[in-house]
Amino acid sequence: MTDTLIRNARHVLTMDDADQELQGVDIRISGGVIAEIGPGLAPNDTEIIEAANCVVTPGLVNTHHHLYQTLTRAVPGGQDALLFGWLKTLYPIWARFGPEEMFTSAQIGLAELALSGCSLTSDHLYLYPNGARLEDTIHAAAEIGLRFHPTRGSMSIGESDGGLPPDTLVEREEDILNDCIRVIDAFHDPSEGSMCRVGIAPCSPFSVSRDLMRDAALLARDKRVMLHTHLAENDEDIAYSQAQFGCRPGQYALDLGWTGTDVWHAHCVKLDGQEIDLFARTRTGVAHCPCSNCRLGSGIAPVRAMRDAGVKVGLGVDGSASNDSGNLLAEARQAMLLQRVTRGADAMSAREALRIATRGGAEVLGRDDCGQIAVGKRADIALWDVSGIESAGSWDPAALLLAGPTQVRHLLVEGRQVVRDGRLTTIDQDAVIATQNRLARKLAETT
């Protein structure tokens, strides 16, 4: 792998332990790792990336996504529904997906993330119609070049048994657990610098049994992988938990082994004070999805209270059927604005929101080798050109969430340049868009 020198960066937001901000420095990358940081580094025999007009940050980290949903953006009938009604509109459409739909939608979702500065993303795939498998998304991530944390999701309780999804989309629990073992053994890499780590992710309390939740936790600990699910997303979710299980979501998670440093929950909009304290005490992570929560009318998650209590919080774009975008920098801005709406203008700074989107997400996903610009850390680096119209007149270009830009000029993942001058280097972007639109039209025509 060729060494790279990022030269004369205008401003570097390191997100390191000291929260350093550096100006006019170079960053040397060797073997996928940040090897040296400082002014005037010798170019030696390296590829040079000029950064005089750029703010440099760690690559952003996305802690919750449903990549398959990029094929169902802005679907009529679901645009103005709450969570349960939105799901019931989309389940029959998703039931017609197959391997090609899963692969292509993942390519588009990952490409969109990369262009917004994201270098590491998780994904929650919980339905497998018509021969689709988790590796459809894993292969897409390898092709795009992003660091990937796919989770083997599942649904096992259909409508006939009191669940929300149609019976055609649920699986036998024995089959679910066996396939979890298969994909972990085939694709999970626990080593430092790993490009693929697999997790286990039963979908939600309203689509799987308590037995599956408990068995999934036992299996994850045996395999030393992480656990992920949806929790406390809206008032309907809370009501379902209380009616079906006689407890709030936090107690449900605790009873079934779903707290700890190896667990992160998506949304958590409706956590109360006791549940926040539980997550802080057990070091359980949260994926905050502000745009999706707004789109579905779920509410505003108590992120300020979570952060103040010591809960690990990262950001997630959630699925593109409920966002309907996949721009992680825009997600960070939305997170900042929502906390200000509820708690005042000083509730969250632009820099704190960006830290949640980088270092915070890496901590949630258990990646202490990512999420910061420091010697010895992985070379996942985003360069934001602040010489354009979005930043013109900005007194503080490092406050990216206030004045932009919202897309990267360059993105490096493991030292490889995945985005160069605002274009993906790893795929034919236009061809993949054309395939995506063809598949979307086919789905719409048969609905």
Strand order of the largest sheet: 3-2-7-16-17-18-19
CATH fold-level topology of the largest domain: TIM Barrel
Topology, number of strands: 19
Q: Could you describe the largest sheet, including whether it forms a barrel?
A: 7 strands, mixed
Q: How much helicity do the residues have?
A: 25-40%
Comma- or semicolon-separated keywords:
447 residues; alpha/beta; Urease, subunit C, domain 1; TIM Barrel; 2 domains; four-stranded mixed sheet; 19 strands; globular
Quick structural gist:
The chain has 14 helices and 19 strands. It is an alpha/beta fold.
Walkthrough of the structure:
The protein is of the alpha/beta class. The chain has two domains: 108 residues, Urease, subunit C, domain 1 (Roll); 305 residues, Alpha-Beta Barrel (TIM Barrel), CATH 3.20.20.140. It is 36% helix and 20% strand. The chain contains 14 helices and 19 strands. A seven-stranded mixed beta sheet has the order 3-2-7-16-17-18-19, covered by helices on one side. Strands 5-4-1-6 form a four-stranded mixed beta sheet, with no helix packed on it. Strand 4 and strand 5 form a beta hairpin. The radius of gyration is 21 Å and the shape is globular. The mean pLDDT is 96.
